[in-house]
Amino acid sequence: MTDREHPVHYLHGYAEILADVSATGRRLTREEIESRRALGEQAAEAGHGLRTLVSEHLTAARSAWPHSLGSTDTALGAVQQVIDAFAEGYERAQHHAVRQEEAARREFIDDLLYGRSDLGRLAERAERFGLRLSHAHAVAVAQGPAAYDESDPVLRQVERALIGRFGDRDVLITTKDGRLLCVAPGHQDDVLAYFAKQAYAATEGGRVAIGRPRPGPGGVVHSYEEALNALELGERLGLEDPVLRAADLLVYPVLTRDRQAMADLVLDTLGPLTTSRGGAQPLLDTLTAYFDCGCVAAEAARRLSLSVRALTYRLERIHKLTGANPADPAHRYMLQTAVIGARLLDWPATAL
User: What's the whole-model pTM score?
Assistant: First the structure.
């Protein structure tokens, strides 16, 4: 029979302590208290419930009462000391186990997101945390006004919402570098979309980016990096969407793959704007608003708090300086690409 079947094992020496304390009126010695703590730790490590063990202690005290216990007050004091020491040891073991589990989880998450571990070993460890890395996974990253960690109530709020909606569906919710993360099977886009909705609300208007589904253990790393890049692009381009999908932003990495070529396009196309009174930025903002609203002059003027006449004057000025007409479809693609490049390269604030 195992110790788990006989929790009375963790009461070893208890009756003798009660009898001696009752007879002499003394308090427990330091060694006796430490022995109770040690038994409490052992019971926790063996998986016994504290409630059952406390009940066993009280039952043993009642059994010993008619035969050997003297002063009721002394006996109850001894019972209190024993149970208090036992519970302290039990809780100490539980806290240690929790810290070990948290450390193991954090190490796994770091290895998962940075790909620093052997992929085969990483897949084995992943099952302990509810992930099957043989499948494709996608990562959603939420960034809010504050930095979040594993103990943050914002994380718990989002986690409770997802579990309440979907239950345990091989999803890992955690934090990394102050951001909220959700790792989910690639075919469960509904989970990632719901995470984005909950994270947006919990972070009070933060932004969420979702990477593309990627296969295998290394796929999580790639999807995570895509989500981070999408967040960076969203900030650099001033995108207003609260949820960004890496799949919808693929054109931007393509445009900046040859940075020197993009810099040349920006300078050759938009460089003449720097000669304008007030510099290039106001005219660049005009082009940005004009292209963002589908080249509708009235809407662009509203966004810039200008009259349509003032906007038209600015567009004419751009045409005169650059030789490219924003209203002409033949020139529009080159201008719009150059404007995107300027935003990606932070021009004209940053010299190219």
Answer: 0.61
DSSP state of 171: -
Q: How far apart are CA 302 and CA 297, in angstroms?
A: 9
Tokens of 73: 């007050």
174, 110 Cβ separation under 8 angstroms: no
d(CA 161, CA 93): 31
**What are the pLDDT digits (tens) for 42-89?**
888 787 888 888 888 888 887 766 455 556 777 778 888 888 888 888
Cβ proximity of 315 and 327 under 8 Å: yes
CA–chain centroid gap for 44, Å, is: 30
Q: What are phi and psi of 211, to 5 degrees?
A: -80, 165
Segment 307-316 long-range contacts (CB within 8 Å, at least 24 positions apart): 311/286, 314/282, 314/283, 314/286, 315/286, 315/290
